[in-house]
Input
Amino acid sequence: MRVCEFVLKQGVIKASLIQLDVRSSKTENLQRVVDAIESAGEISDLIIFPEYCMGYPDEGLSRNYVEEIAEPLDGEFITVVAEKSKEREVAIVMPIFEKSNDDVYDTAVIINNGEVSGGYRKIHLFDALGYKESEYFRPGSEPTLFKIGDTLLGVVICYDIRFPELAKSEAMSGARVIVVPSAWYRGPLKEEQWQTLLMARAQENTSYVIGVDNANEAFIGRSMVVDPLGVKVLDLGSGEHIGFYDIDSCQVNEARKKLPVLKQSNDFQSLPCHEL
Output
């Protein structure tokens, strides 16, 4: 598990959730990303953008569209975002379609003060409910952590949140915050599923969970922060919004004293099931 370390400017992490209405034009999306960084950067330590930030066309994703707009980590999109990160002295989680050799990954890039530290490549591709991300993306294989001050954060992307072992592995490795950039499709009970999953991952790992969803009409929005006891403390609703929340590591300490579930966790993968 990789760890990238950043310097924290203040005692808590001042997080900004950018619930962006992503359009089909990569150029337009990049400008709106820059505008959001300029709006939130001076009062933030960490800015989180939603999944599919490079673009989402009206007809939905296609292999041709993804391959056409995908870029490497040193491409224009991330280069511009990194410049704004340096200007505002802020850390940014920026999901892109990452081109690497002949493959494209759904990657959450980690940037701080102009430095591109790498990224997390989505492990669980959304091949469910009539969608098939594996037609456009190659899956990642490595959980990723990054550090701001003394606080370790994990990152998963959208569908990953349905797999509790991934968030648990990050929490067991020291993560106190799980960041979840997403493009959570609309559908029957999808808002309830999103909220329930975020709250469950927070409570079972006594960690903050920050879900930042796409505001395009194909998705639900509802970006939220859940505290380490599983209580929703911020909900941006639908539409395009920017939300702010102070992530206080002391709250994680208190939750883990009250509910020492991580210390009490067993590795059930190594335990054989007993059949009666």
The radius of gyration is 18 Å. Confidence is low (pLDDT under 50) at residues 1-10.
